[in-house]
Structure formats: C-alpha cells, structure tokens
Amino acid sequence: MTMEKLTASQVRTLFLFEHLDDAQVTWLVEHGHVERRAAGTPILTEGEPATCFFVLLEGTVALRRNVGGELVETNRTDHRGSYFGATQAYLEADIGSKTNYQMTVDSITDTVMFQLPADEFGPMVREWFPMAMHLLEGLFLGMQNNQRVLGQRERLLALGSLSAGLTHELNNPAAAAVRATAALRERVAGMRHKLAMLASGAIDPATLPSLVLLQENAVERVAKAPKLGPMQASDREDEVADWLEERGISGGWDLAPTLVAGGLDVEWLREAIEPCPGASIEAAVRWIAYTVETESLMNEIEDATTRVSTLVGAAKQYSQMDRAPFQVVDVHELLDSTLVMLNNKLGAGIEVVRSYDRSLPLISGYAAELNQVWTNLIDNAIAAMSGKGTLTIRTALDDGCAVVEITDTGTGIPAEIKERIFEPFFTTKAVGEGTGLGLDITWRIIVNKHHGDVRVDSVPGKTTFHIRIPLNPLKAQ
C-alpha cells in the first residue's frame, strides 16, 4: 500500500518547518506521510504509547485532558500547522521523557494531518538542533526537579502536621500514666503500712482471712463497675458517706468517691463488712478503699499504656515502617490508621461515620502512598468543614475494584474551579497554607501508579471524592 506523501514545497508551507534547509525538508518528505480521519473519530488517546507526531493540514481537532475521570476540552483548533501527539519525542529517554500521550485528540471535522514516527523524528531533531536540545532538556529537567522538590515539601509539611498531632495525642495518655503511677506508689506504701500493723498485732490476725476475701470480692466489683452519670454518682457517694458516718468511720466523705467509683454501694458494704467485729469495721473499710483505689489506678495505667501502644501501632501502620513498598493491604486498616493520625485535627466538632464493607477483599498496592491519598482527602475535608460537620468514609466492592468514598458536609467546590482542582499548584487555600500539590499527588498515586480513578461530586453541604482502585493494579495495566 502506497502512503500519501507531501512535496517539499508543501512541507515548507508549515510554519514549524519553514526555516529548515533542503536536506532537512527532504528527510521530512521521505519519513512522513499524510493521514486522514473522518469527523468524530479519535486521533490519539491520553495514556497510550506516544508513537506519532502530528501536524494539522486541514480540519478541526479538539484536545482533551482526563480530569477527575471526565474528559475536559482544553483547546479546539483549525489552525493549519498546529501540532500534537509525541511532542516530547526529542527528549533523551534517560532523563525521564514522557513515553505516553499527554492528552486525547479527536477529529471534530474530516481531518488531514502530516504524521511522523516519533522514534525517527525525535533523534533527528536532536541531531539538527543540538544547542536547542540542551536548553529544552535543561528547562524540562528544571521543571521536573522543581515539582519533585515541592512534592517532597508537601509530604514533609503533612508529616510535620501529623507529627505535631501525634505528639499531642501521645502526651495525654503518657501524662495520665505518670500521674496514676505516682498515686499508685503512695497507695502501695499505704498497703505496706497495713501489713506493718498486722505484724505488730494492731490488727487482729483472725480477721485477715475475712479481709482477704473482702479484697477479692472488691476487685471483682471494680472490674464490673458500671459507668455512672455525675448526678447518679453524687447520690451514691452521699449514701455511702452517710452510711460510713453512722458507723463512726472518720473521713467517710473522702472514702465514698473511691468506693463508688469501684462499683461498691451501701448494699454491698452492708453485706460484706457488717459481719466483721465492731472494732474491725473501719480497718476493713479502709483496706477495701486501698484495694479499690490501687485496682482503679492499675486500670488507668493499663488504659493509658494501651492508648499509647495503639497510637504507636497506628503510626507504624500509617508510615508502613519496615514493610515492603508494594504489598497486599487491608484498605480499612489504612483508613483507620490515617484517622488516628488526624484525630487531633478532627476535634470534637466533626463526627466521623465509618460505613465499611467488611467483605471487601485485600488489595495489592503501595500502602504508604495510599495513606498519603487518604491524608490529603481527609485533611481537605476537615478544612472545608471549618471544625464542624460530618465526615463519612464508605467502602465497597464494584466490578473488580475497591471503592473508597470520602464525603464531607463542608462548603463544597465551586463549579468554576471544579475542573482545575487536580492541576499542579492550584489551590484555594491562603498563601502559606497549601502548595496546591495535594490533589495532584492524589491523582498521580491513584491513576498513574495504581491504574485507578478519582472523581468528585460537589454541591454546597456535600462533597464526595470517589476513589476506585483495582484489586490487583498490575493486572489493570
């Protein structure tokens, strides 16, 4: 099949080639050919291998970019000589030149184009214009490096913010554990004092078995102690204090809160302690109070250290420390660890609703980078709600993909900027509050690295980001 060719004079009518010498024009004539497309047919598709360089001869074409899962028209032209396709074919492969089409181009009318193979055209341009290539490659590398540095800074800013929040979250249980430990030391010293009294005969040794039994019963009550409201606790404390005072036990008002907090009421005290000899009742009550308080303090220390351990575990899960970059992960674990890391930002005014599909299988992916996606989206949602609203996170399985939806009740995304939110460096935040790379990074992680999709629906009071990730991104390539 003979391909339609342009003549040298026809090539020179194109502004891109008008200043080339005869030998260069001859090369173009020999290596290029004419292509025709009917109206409404695609010429090239974003993401496919960039194999051809096109120059428009006749007709109208539309250039479109995939933004948020929608094809957005960025340009429409009928200008003769307009070029598109493998426009970076001249870059050396070893400096990271793009090998895929960066946009979709469709024929709006019947179209005639001059086409050159990228693998032949690129090397020839480098040979013809060596100095220009150095300048262009320097510009290209500079832009890449700038974006890389700013992307790293975006990650560091997020990490710094999360670290500050995590430090605050760790400080509370750690401080509680320190306080409880100090109080427990005092109570243990008191218990040693009671033992000294036993040894000296101040307490009748015959009462010791009864005291030990009381102690064991009290420990069981502490473990099952119900949570009381302020009014209910106050009423019970009054009852216990009155009961202690009636029996001549000094300091009953100080002992009552400890006993009530341990789940002990007047009925239990009456049944457990009244059978003791009269002289031993106060000793028994104080013995039980020490037991209840030490048990409560140990529970408090356990709760605090468990909280610290949970936070450290969440931080380790979030950072994926000591784990392979690409692994099989549970999306719910990643989401939960991110929420823990952002808990300080959520505050009391934002309600978090988890609507997880627990039948969702594990997925293969870059866990640390997926956590960065959740961080960017949840952090933006928190900012949009200004400290008050509902954050809903839903997961589902749909057509071989894990679906994660993050919805906030914030102000919404204005329609005029919705198509730009995934652009690098575009931000609606005040100067110094954002780099405009959060959603760009999100897009690149989900779409480019996991071969998934990111879309957004937004109206005032409800903004939802829809993230689709193939269960096995490697098979989705």
Automatic annotation (TrEMBL):
Keyword Transferase: yes
Histidine kinase domain: residues covered: 277-473
Chemical reaction(s) catalysed: ATP + protein L-histidine = ADP + protein N-phospho-L-histidine
Keywords from the named record: Kinase, Transferase, Two-component regulatory system
SUPFAM superfamilies: ATPase domain of HSP90 chaperone/DNA topoisomerase II/histidine kinase (SSF55874), cAMP-binding domain-like (SSF51206)
Pfam families in UniProt: cNMP_binding, HATPase_c
EC number(s) given by UniProt: 2.7.13.3
Domain Cyclic nucleotide-binding: 16-121
InterPro entries to which the protein is assigned, alphabetical: cNMP-bd_dom (IPR000595), cNMP-bd_dom_sf (IPR018490), HATPase_C_sf (IPR036890), HATPase_dom (IPR003594), His_kinase_dom (IPR005467), RmlC-like_jellyroll (IPR014710), Sig_transdc_His_kin-like_C (IPR004358)
GO term, biological process aspect, one: phosphorelay signal transduction system
A molecular function GO annotation: protein histidine kinase activity
Tree of life domain: Bacteria
CDD domains: CAP_ED
The protein's name in its UniProt record: histidine kinase
Species name: Kibdelosporangium phytohabitans
Upper taxonomic lineage: Bacteria, Bacillati, Actinomycetota, Actinomycetes, Pseudonocardiales
